[in-house]
Sequence to fold (785 residues):
Amino acid sequence: MTRRPQIARLADGRRLHLQDGPIDLIVEAKGPEAQLRAAYAAAARRFTGLLDELCAELPELRTAADPVRCALTGVVARRMHAAVAPFAAGHFITPMAAVAGSVAEEILDVMLGATQLDRAYVNNGGDIALHLTAGEQFAVGLVDRPDRHGLMQTITVDAGDPIRGVATSGRHGRSFSLGVADAVTVLAKTASQADAAATIIANAVDLPGHPAIVRCPANELQPDSDLGARLVTRDVGELSAHEIEAALDAGAACARQVLAAGLIEGAALRLLGETVVVGAKAIGAQRSQAVHKAAPRNLIHA
Amino acid sequence: MTTDTTMAAVGDKIRCDACPVMCYIKPGAAGACDRYANHNGELVRVDPHIVLERTVEHGGQLVPFQAGGDWDGKIVHQPDIFVTAIGAGTTYPDYKPAPFIVSSEIDGVDMVTVVTEGIFSYCGVKVKIDTDRHLGPETATVRAQGEAVGHVTTGEYGSQMLSLGGVHHLTGGSKKEGRVTCDTLMDLSNRKPVELTIDGGATVVVQAGYPPIVNGVAEERMRVGCGSATIGMFAKQWHGKVDEVVVVDDHITGVLSEHQAGKLLDIPDTGIKMKGRRSTPGRYFQVAEPGTGWGGTKISDPLSVLGPFDPKEARPGLSMLMVSTTGEHATYYELDAALRPVEKEMPRDLKLSVERIQENCEPALCTVLFMGGAGGSLRAGVTDNPVRLTRSVKDALTRVTSGGAPVYVWPGGGITFMVDVTQMPAGAFGYVPTPALVAPIEFTLRLSDYAALGGHMDYVRPLASLKDNAEIRSVPHMPGRRA
Fold:
């Protein structure tokens, strides 16, 4: 059986959509059409077969990562391991925790290898690899009411910032979470690092043993889950304001450690309507504008 | 290109080979991609059919309702909407929370966390519960998890209607009320059981396509008719086998000897004395309070609806059958020397007649119709003059379906439709924390009409090409649906 990924420009003619099995990427580059075409062609070439490459090492990728040793051979697989390795001594984590960010990074890398781009991103279902050159910036918005035309919070990433990766983890995504966070968004130097860190921090937003939190062994939901019989969060019932704060505090403590270790640039942790921001001047600076309909007009992208 | 996706069964799990991840998928669960799932041992593709104005995804701008200037007669101007089928051109999955999606230029911002698209804040479900039992007074509040999610509306023939959801419960109340309403609507629409409590009434578990469970008891049958109708239907079968029959009904209790059907058979008077208000001969209203006992009354002893027999007409040994409108309750009596009814074992003939009543009752079910309005922005996304899309729908040039199921489009403004959720693919509904429901909606029209509308012909793909990346699953038509 041969299988070909779906590769097509979106209706706007600017963005590229790549999908294969569980991988789903939205890619956009800024530049003259000829450069776009070269970048997108490179992305499509690299994307074709990428899933097979990962699956060839799937059993190892689903095994708890060794903090030092890496027996993986694929470029993306090794990047996944490198991203999770700093956490592997203290936590259970498999390279799969960084798969989305690592794939995004890989596609962005080959695009940049093929041509010069002023600005580009590869968004793998919320785990985003960024490219910025001098004078360029990205405005990243968090929306909590997508039916309304407005943003809850914005983050501006300038070319001068070290941030080139954004990732979000939480209990609502396709991946399971051991914690209760609705979303933990992490800014880091790379998408793969952001991805791994978001997983760890989202797991830490937790209230162990709380009766309103419904948990279930991961392998009862997905028999081949890399989390095995670990309890993953299925539902979060009513929590008091104090409990929400306690869960966010636990996550924030973890985020501060990861920040101090230099693994991330910042994180925004969200649980039941409450948000805590760690580090990330970029997020904090915009918080005063965190009001619906108040998305500032002057945040024009470059 | 892709061949048909197949799977190998491993115990109750199946192994998907849609992609090299080769997920083992348990029944009721989806694979890592959320696109393929195990439905009763069968691998199915689960992305909903969605036709959406990709407001946020495609350019991030709402199309102005009337962009300016006069309408020039063209229905479609803007390339901001297109017709998709399963999974075509989606960012995954359209209806699920995807915490971050890079999009463009919403309020000058490049990236937005788009939790979903295709949101129905204006939506609800109409629930029809086949039961004679009194579920609660009309206009009583219906609650889920203690929150008001709707109200009791009209009583219909053998059924009680509930109206749940709507924009006021979704957005007008407390945050919890909105969330619980959204959950309730989504669960009901996805054909899951939901426990509802009615103020001053019953607790009922509702699940589309299943019998209602009223105060813990599953309803089996819908009434064969009202008490009077039951007399009319079965009078001849009772004639000669029993002296008197009372069909106990909260609405219209029937009495054989007094009823026109009995008179025509020359059934003699029995001296029976009914409580309640006589409407016409042999037809009584309000013989008891409404409830969840016999025939939708609150009684458990049917004799409580009778007064003493009239000694001028009654005689010892006179036989009487009392039965409910579903045949669920039935007791046989004979009058003793003091003309008091005494319960006796029911003769075989009468047992058969009770069974005949049961046999003529249709199974009691809950039906759930999802109702939503695709009225405003969606139309504006298609045309500068949105009423033209509405007209094209109403003129039957454009057919509206929801998850492939036929819908009823309300006359009048907008495109407000109702759809039987049991005709839709399982799991067709999603939600956003707004709270609001996400439902599939498709517009289908002739290619020539679409071209004439100025449709996006470049994006039209032959159906056969969808086989390359999608399992095509037909939505079965449900035969034998009653009018």
